[in-house]
Design a protein that fits this description.
Blueprint lengths: L14 E5 L20 H14 L3 E3 L20 H10 L5 E7 L5 H15 L3 E6 L4 H6 L8 H20 L4 E4 L4 E5 L11 E4 L3 H10 L2 E3 L5 H17 L5 E10 L3 H14 L3 H14 L8 H11 L3 E5 L1 H13 L4 E5 L3 H11 L1 H7 L7
Parallel strand pairs: 1-2, 1-11, 2-3, 3-4, 4-7, 7-8, 8-9, 9-10, 9-11
Antiparallel strand pairs: 5-6
Helix pairs in contact: 1-12, 2-3, 3-5, 5-6, 8-10, 9-10, 11-13
Length: about 375
């Protein structure tokens, strides 16, 4: 693979993307009728809006069953590899990630799928690796979730080693590993450029995996002061390992002309009409099987789960939302995803009123 000019690797701009537009209700666990409809038509409309505005990437969530509650939050999800293929074929510059569960997708198949997407897009596809954490999803697939993170990430490591071998070797080879026994494999075509690799990790084993393999480690931002130390520690850990890893986070946007309007809408969606049964199912599963969020912040996280799946809140006027994004930049994050209650309806206001502030501050380049 040649060195990439992919915009995800360009160092002079704070990265912005969207998260979970392929999922019903997006990132907001709400019952309001104007919540996000994750239809293909809406995703394509959104992708074109983002592409025209110079937004850097779209990141999906891979789900196989919903979280219950009145809305069965994330019960409807567009599969991420095919979703990415469709969006990449109809956009010009934006990166689109496929989110892949290692246990549910064979590495030989995934290597070829991503190489195909590389050709479709001219080098704009990314890979988000999920080692697995959600026990009911394992059960839905007829699989057992290992109780220990060492086994999950051991499997994920060999899985990714197979993928990278397929992308780098030019002659057929055998693979005799702990989890994979392969005979006479070769992957043609191979990606033409370096694909951005993303991994969300909270456990010690997960972060070792991310530091070893990913270009971007994805982690929550509880508050910028706390995050500043965490990001610095993660980057130092990567440096000690001889690698450079950037850190991304995720945020939820409610942006209105006045602070009062924004707070009232957030109250309406994420308190008065939150799907609390689904929120509690989501929190219970996260805390039982994953280590994405610090357990000392449970009460705060429950509210944030309703508003934006635990994302950093960006609520207020365009100036206040921009200030929140700048605080993430100053904490050391390389970028953030954004979610909205209705992405297509709300993003244009963000585009027209927040992006110019970020550009004037010097953390985004004008691209429109």
């Amino acid at each position: 693979m040649s060195s990439s000019t992919n915009r995800m690797f360009e160092p002079d701009s704070f990265l912005l993307g969207t998260f979970a537009s392929n999922c019903s209700s997006g990132m907001t666990v709400t019952k309001v009728p104007d919540r996000w409809d994750n239809s293909w038509a809406n995703n394509l409309r959104l992708a074109k809006l983002l592409d025209d505005a110079g937004i850097d990437f779209m990141l999906p969530i891979a789900r196989w069953i919903g979280y219950g509650g009145e809305t069965n939050f994330h019960g409807s999800v567009l599969e991420t590899m095919t979703w990415a293929a469709g969006l990449l074929a109809q956009t010009r510059a934006i990166n689109v990630f496929a989110t892949i569960h290692t246990v549910a997708n064979h590495p030989v198949v995934v290597a070829k799928q991503l190489a195909t997407l590389d050709q479709i897009s001219g080098g704009r596809v990314g890979l988000n690796i999920v080692a697995g954490w959600n026990k009911p999803e394992y059960e839905a697939l007829g699989l057992n979730l290992p109780d220990d993170h060492e086994t999950r990430y051991g499997y994920a490591q060999e899985w990714f080693d197979v993928v990278t071998a397929l992308w780098s070797r030019t002659e057929s080879f055998d693979w005799e590993g702990r989890y994979f026994k392969l005979k006479n494999v070769l992957s043609e075509p191979r990606p033409s450029t370096r694909l951005p690799i993303l991994n969300a990790a909270g456990s010690e084993q997960g972060r070792k995996f991310a530091v070893r393999n990913a270009n971007f480690l994805f982690t929550p931002a509880i508050d910028p002061a706390r995050s500043k130390h965490e990001v610095a520690a993660l980057k130092e850990q990567a440096t000690i390992s001889g690698r450079s890893v950037d850190v991304l986070t995720f945020a939820h946007v409610v942006c209105r002309p006045t602070e009062r309007e924004a707070k009232e809408y957030l109250q309406y969606c994420a308190q008065t009409h939150a799907d609390w049964d689904a929120v509690d199912n989501l929190v219970r599963l996260q805390f039982a099987h994953a280590q994405s969020f610090p357990h000392d912040m449970l009460a705060l996280i429950r509210d944030r789960m309703a508003a934006g799946h635990g994302g950093y809140p960006l609520t207020g006027t365009p100036e206040q939302v921009a200030e929140g994004i700048i605080s993430l930049y100053e904490a050391g994050f390389r970028g953030t995803t954004l979610s909205f209650v209705d992405y297509v309806e709300e993003f244009p206001y963000f585009r027209d009123n927040v992006l110019p502030i970020l550009e004037a501050h010097g953390i985004r380049r004008a691209q429109r």
